[in-house]
Task: structure prediction
Amino acid sequence: MILNGTSYRDMVISGANNLANERENINRLNVFPVPDGDTGINMSLTMGAVRTDLPSFEGDVSQVADKVANMLLRGARGNSGVILSLFFRGISKECKGKETVDAPDLAAAFQRGVDAAYKSVMKPTEGTILTVMRVAAEKALEKADEYKGRVEDFMPFVLSVAEETLQKTPEMLPVLKQAGLVDAGGRGLVVIFEGMVGYLQGNPVALLDAEGAESEAETESAFDQFNTEDIVYPYCTECIVGKSDAYIGEGKAEKLHKFVLGAGDSAVFVDDTDIIKLHVHTSDPGKVLSEALKFGSLLTVKIENMKEQHSALSSGAAKDVPATPVEEVKEEVTDAIPEKKYGFVAVASGEGMVSVFRDLGADQMVIGGQTMNPSTEDMLKAIRMTPAENVIVLPNNSNIYMVAAQAALLVEDKHVEVLRSVSLPQGISAMLAFNPDGEVEENVTAMKEAMAAVSSLSMTFAAHDSTFDNREIKENQILGLVENKVRYVTDTREECMANLCDDIKDACVVTLFYGEGVSEAEAEAMQGILQEKLGDDVDVMLVDGGQPVYYFIISAE
Result:
């Protein structure tokens, strides 16, 4: 069998479906105990458009491969998603101009994909998805001539090499060996290959029904630790969509209507001439909003965490329960005409955190962070909507940096600088160091120095039982992080805060941001612990950040 455009398309769709079906199993392979933008979800969301939009696309291999690459590049989420998108981008470049591909062609395409993926990572780590794809591509090149027109026999060989390499990843990464797990990203790639082989052998993988798929996509909020088990879909999600030209008129958004009906319960959908208004209770509001964006621009957005509201009502503490923080989006403006020299795009979540960046001069806020990794398309839109000649991007999370960097490469009419800010305190310090009268290079240098000078500490909970850094961690124990690394494991937040104080050295100003679900009384008590431990010479300020996942974030300068 030689692949034409249709068979290549259907092979990739089968792989994407298999990935979506297996994403929760892939999530469980995450070693890091902190609630994260899980690998399975990030990779599945990256390939989301392939599952929904590619089936109707027609073309030769060159055209289909290019379409797949564009979809993945714009939908990429998290480091694993970016690496996956670049792998398929390399494949598309090798397939350019070809109507069909055989085994040697496919092997060369895989190798080009590996080259593209490795170039995107400053310090590639072996024992990850990169290793699995590299070894599979190398062996594929060695054996491809033996298969030639028999792609249906060639791909099972590639799959066997990938599976064998995956099983060796614990020997390459001590953290995997300690946890007794294989690499999550590598497993995701193997799952894609499994789906591809299934198609070639006459057993294409179908996507699970909407209810099953959505339940697998559910991610827990840091503060969903309540006796509210009856709330299956915790996020009340509403938005108004200003229709793009293709959907002007009533009844032209039936696809979105069907999606919303399958995304949860309590769905309400109004398809008017110029706008769409939708409401749904769902486990993944980001996916609903991403689907809505395909039909136009988001005019307004509101998301509320019903588990949190229910818990507050049950305890009698329901005063002013904050909604899950989401930036309300005004009518979208793409490719904004530069009106000033500098503009900022920052990533944050939590009403208070977003307000801090807004007050410091951020033009566009992308709502995201831990467990909520925005896509390349999200970042690209924000950059294009910024009316400045030079746009400085602050991803504020290590798992979002690569996505932001890829988005910057797609912008042609503006100069974009993506700073490697890996925490919210770093992003805030960078903006404080900005000089509107300085040159770009001077500002970038000053902002990097400010980022290096601030200490970032945080407190969250263990998402699952794990063996990490030579210690046993139980689900829901309290974790104290210093520069995004687990330093303390305790049973109470008070004990964790006291321990974190020991890592604040030579600070003059400390800011304590308290998160979603933390009461003002508890926040003040934690402020008191900090003040007592650090002494009167240190100013400890308290800010309602409203951030999810982290009970507290500490900035020490």
